[in-house]
Amino acid sequence: IGSSASDCCLKYSQKAIPSSLVKSYSLQGPESGCLLRAVVFTTKKNKKICASPTDPAVQKLMQNLDKKVKNDKKNKKKGQSPRPAGKPRRQKRQRV
Question: Deepest in the core among 17, 48, 75, 80, taking most CB within 10 A?
Fold first, then answer.
């Protein structure tokens, strides 16, 4: 197998993957030169976690990431940066 084989998942992680740590995912399988079909999650610290594509929790996490990416693109198109929650907008004082 070629040099890309070292990037392939050989087994699935058995631990639950917290959605707060994950920033993206990709799919691997025979089309990418890997024997095992897997979802490869990338964490915010750029670590890779391999998961089973048939696991319902993994599928839900993938859907949540897809929604997040879609919402981020919408916000960028509008040109508005999301304000931190809980901070009210400051109002200017009117002079009398």
Answer: 17
